[in-house]
């Protein structure tokens, strides 16, 4: 004892009060009860479970506070403690405001100084988080033990920390025997160094890796294994090991390979399908754009008369016909030519040459083979023929290479095939845009890009030309003309747009865009009230989808048709099918007017012109240009006027460039005129 201790006065601590303070300060539930279960002390964490205050709980029995549902589970543990032994209960308890919580409760017998039993002290501890962690660990251990995948954890020294039963059985060992064992010892030094260590090192550097490898199963069977390696990090984020999962994917890979083959093969004919065809084309386009290809050709083949086989002899005969054609194509196309079925009765070829002559020679050989084929079915015989379209992509400058796309080449071949079909079939048509070279080819690409940009979203600029009545000089109509800006900012007019769109199969898209813009302007009332004339190509006239949309739109706006004049080129008449004539009749029935455009460019107009099909005849520039000094042209114009009068139709002279010509045309009986002599094109706004 020090002097300081001697000087310090002795304090008499109130022991009972101290015990009560300690109990009250505890965050865990605590209570003390007598042998007859009467609670003599308790803290708030305990009494709050029963929804009571400390004052309300003290003096009541444990049964009253715990409730009749919970007390029967507590009673055996209280009895054990009252018998002088410590008892421990773990159980779920519903805590107000916290839900179900898992508690570890220790029931401790309490004796006085003489060893007499005073009662039981119960100490509770919330171990919910520990319980959940144990449950997760138990489930994880169970899953790891029972999983069919082979799972191991390998440390940085390439030794097993653990492995599961599946992997142990594979090697004929126990899981316990793997602990601390070197991976090199298990798989062999050579295989470890060449096949395993590079992947493990990548994983231990922080990368999750996955790869397939071939292995030998315990029964001697060759199998394909999928290996997945994931970094295992400690609490500080440091990589301590690699978690290795091995899965037998032999059947999965076989099925995948079979499905991939089926996905690239046509079920009926056994040759490549459209997906395979386009995949092959994508490879060639990519190589071409990088400069690693001298070019290639794409061929579309549309069988002529296939519908006759199906309709006459049935689908069985049609299937046999297609199978024979596929076999014929493979035999006749030659080495290095990919053959595919790309549609119902459509086939495609990819030829590894960009030379149009070479591609044409192969197609000529195919056409000859078709001529020699006959399908005999029951008592019938069917001939074969085809419409063939070729798009050849030859070596060119870097700018042209970058403009080549899969979609564009397919479009060229498809359009060439359509032209062959429209010309009567049994012929070959080469896409002329693909045959251009040098500066012409570069200009073609620039024009195509400009038109495609307009279609894709930029839209066309709309200009208008005024049409006047030659008798009064007053405006009677405006023709709307699309224009498009090039990359240099120059404006290209309808002639370039039409020529480019026709060569590349884009006329329907151009017509749809321009006509929709015109209709929108008319619907909004943003015009001067004069009728508006707009071109309608033969391709668009044959589109049933467009026809339905246009008729529906005009029927919903009954005042609109009176303001519309659709212009159809004379050159389209010879190619027009009944559905095109029907659409024109439907438009006129709604109140629209139809003008026969570019009349006089050929003789088709005289042979195809139908009474009561048109409302105007527009005389082509070939007859109106240089009119003053050419008596033959004046006679021709006079003849057109006479024909129009016989049909009861007014005439419109196009491209009138000289004011002098206006009087000449008036004298020849022409009704209306347009051109620079009347007014130059102006923005239509």
What share of residues is helical?
Answer: 40-55%
Compute the CA-based radius of gyration: 46 Å
Q: Count structural domains.
A: 4
Low-pLDDT sequence parts: 1-9, 11-15, 434-438
Please, what is the CATH homologous superfamily of the largest domain?
Answer: EAL domain
User: Could you say which structural class the secondary elements and strand pairing correspond to?
Assistant: alpha+beta
Report the total helices.
27
Strand residues, percent: 15-25%
What is the CATH top level name of the largest domain? Alpha Beta
What is the fold named in CATH at topology level of the largest domain?
A: TIM Barrel
Distance between the termini: 111 Å
- Give the CA-based shape: elongated
The CATH architecture of the largest domain can be named as Alpha-Beta Barrel
Please summarize the sheet with the most strands: 8 strands, mixed, barrel
Q: Kindly state the mean pLDDT as a whole number?
A: 86
Strand order of the largest sheet: 18-19-21-22-23-24-25-26
Number of strands: 27
Protein name: PAS domain S-box-containing protein/diguanylate cyclase (GGDEF) domain-containing protein
Domain PAS: 15-85
InterPro entries: Biofilm_reg_signaling, EAL_dom, EAL_sf, GGDEF_dom, Nucleotide_cyclase, PAC, PAS, PAS-assoc_C
Domain EAL: 444-685
